[in-house]
Specification:
The chain is an alpha+beta fold. It is built from 4 helices and 6 strands, in the order αββββαβααβ. The protein is 38% helix and 19% strand. This is PqqD family peptide modification chaperone. Pfam families: PqqD.
Amino acid sequence: MPRTLTACAVLVRDRRSRSADAALGIEGMIVVVPGWSIRDDVAWTDDSERVVALSLARWRDCRPVAIEGTGAVVWRAIAGRPGIELEVLAREMAAAHDHDIGEVRSDLSNLLQTLRREVLVQAE
Protein backbone atom coordinates (compact mmCIF):
# COMPACT_ATOMS: atom_id res chain seq x y z
CA MET A 1 0.00 0.00 0.00
CA PRO A 2 1.81 3.19 -1.15
CA ARG A 3 1.83 6.25 1.05
CA THR A 4 1.90 9.79 -0.24
CA LEU A 5 3.63 12.52 1.72
CA THR A 6 2.90 16.09 0.74
CA ALA A 7 5.12 18.97 1.86
CA CYS A 8 6.70 16.75 4.45
CA ALA A 9 10.06 15.09 4.78
CA VAL A 10 10.40 11.81 6.61
CA LEU A 11 13.76 11.05 8.14
CA VAL A 12 14.46 7.62 9.55
CA ARG A 13 16.75 7.68 12.55
CA ASP A 14 17.82 5.26 15.20
CA ARG A 15 17.10 5.66 18.89
CA ARG A 16 20.56 7.06 19.65
CA SER A 17 19.65 10.15 17.65
CA ARG A 18 16.74 11.10 19.92
CA SER A 19 18.78 13.16 22.38
CA ALA A 20 20.30 15.09 19.48
CA ASP A 21 16.81 15.66 18.10
CA ALA A 22 15.68 17.06 21.45
CA ALA A 23 18.68 19.39 21.57
CA LEU A 24 17.83 20.69 18.10
CA GLY A 25 14.17 21.18 19.01
CA ILE A 26 12.96 18.74 16.39
CA GLU A 27 11.90 15.95 18.72
CA GLY A 28 8.57 14.48 17.65
CA MET A 29 9.10 15.54 14.04
CA ILE A 30 11.16 12.48 13.18
CA VAL A 31 9.80 9.04 12.33
CA VAL A 32 11.76 6.29 14.05
CA VAL A 33 11.47 2.95 12.28
CA PRO A 34 12.53 0.15 14.61
CA GLY A 35 14.88 -2.52 13.44
CA TRP A 36 14.85 -6.04 14.84
CA SER A 37 17.80 -7.80 16.43
CA ILE A 38 18.54 -10.77 18.63
CA ARG A 39 19.00 -9.74 22.24
CA ASP A 40 22.53 -9.80 23.64
CA ASP A 41 21.39 -12.05 26.50
CA VAL A 42 20.19 -14.87 24.25
CA ALA A 43 22.16 -18.08 23.74
CA TRP A 44 21.32 -19.89 20.54
CA THR A 45 22.52 -22.56 18.17
CA ASP A 46 21.68 -23.38 14.57
CA ASP A 47 22.01 -26.89 13.17
CA SER A 48 20.76 -25.86 9.69
CA GLU A 49 17.39 -27.56 10.26
CA ARG A 50 16.29 -25.49 13.22
CA VAL A 51 17.42 -22.84 15.65
CA VAL A 52 17.22 -23.39 19.39
CA ALA A 53 17.30 -20.23 21.50
CA LEU A 54 17.40 -19.63 25.24
CA SER A 55 16.70 -16.30 26.92
CA LEU A 56 19.22 -15.81 29.71
CA ALA A 57 17.24 -12.76 30.87
CA ARG A 58 14.59 -15.19 32.10
CA TRP A 59 17.04 -17.37 34.01
CA ARG A 60 14.51 -18.33 36.70
CA ASP A 61 12.07 -19.80 34.24
CA CYS A 62 14.08 -20.07 31.03
CA ARG A 63 13.27 -22.81 28.60
CA PRO A 64 14.68 -23.47 25.16
CA VAL A 65 12.60 -22.40 22.19
CA ALA A 66 12.89 -24.40 18.96
CA ILE A 67 12.41 -22.30 15.84
CA GLU A 68 11.90 -24.29 12.65
CA GLY A 69 11.01 -23.76 9.01
CA THR A 70 10.34 -20.20 7.95
CA GLY A 71 10.84 -19.03 11.53
CA ALA A 72 14.43 -20.29 11.39
CA VAL A 73 14.95 -18.49 8.07
CA VAL A 74 13.73 -15.26 9.68
CA TRP A 75 15.98 -15.81 12.71
CA ARG A 76 19.02 -16.25 10.46
CA ALA A 77 18.13 -13.07 8.57
CA ILE A 78 17.93 -11.10 11.82
CA ALA A 79 21.17 -12.66 13.09
CA GLY A 80 22.95 -11.79 9.85
CA ARG A 81 21.62 -8.23 9.69
CA PRO A 82 20.99 -6.83 13.17
CA GLY A 83 18.62 -3.89 13.05
CA ILE A 84 16.79 -5.09 9.94
CA GLU A 85 13.42 -3.40 9.51
CA LEU A 86 10.21 -5.40 9.26
CA GLU A 87 9.38 -3.85 5.88
CA VAL A 88 12.76 -4.80 4.40
CA LEU A 89 12.47 -8.34 5.72
CA ALA A 90 8.89 -8.67 4.45
CA ARG A 91 9.81 -7.39 1.00
CA GLU A 92 12.74 -9.81 0.71
CA MET A 93 10.78 -12.81 2.00
CA ALA A 94 7.80 -12.07 -0.25
CA ALA A 95 10.03 -11.78 -3.32
CA ALA A 96 12.04 -14.91 -2.49
CA HIS A 97 8.94 -17.06 -1.99
CA ASP A 98 6.56 -15.34 -4.44
CA HIS A 99 3.99 -14.47 -1.76
CA ASP A 100 1.83 -11.41 -1.17
CA ILE A 101 3.82 -8.84 0.81
CA GLY A 102 0.83 -7.91 2.99
CA GLU A 103 0.37 -11.48 4.11
CA VAL A 104 4.11 -11.94 4.66
CA ARG A 105 4.32 -8.69 6.65
CA SER A 106 1.45 -9.80 8.89
CA ASP A 107 2.96 -13.25 9.49
CA LEU A 108 6.39 -11.74 10.20
CA SER A 109 4.92 -9.23 12.61
CA ASN A 110 3.17 -12.03 14.51
CA LEU A 111 6.35 -14.12 14.61
CA LEU A 112 8.49 -11.20 15.81
CA GLN A 113 5.98 -10.32 18.54
CA THR A 114 6.00 -13.95 19.70
CA LEU A 115 9.82 -13.97 19.80
CA ARG A 116 9.73 -10.65 21.66
CA ARG A 117 7.35 -12.09 24.28
CA GLU A 118 9.83 -14.96 24.72
CA VAL A 119 12.51 -12.28 25.37
CA LEU A 120 14.56 -13.45 22.40
CA VAL A 121 14.47 -10.44 20.05
CA GLN A 122 14.08 -6.71 20.44
CA ALA A 123 12.98 -3.81 18.30
CA GLU A 124 15.31 -0.88 18.58
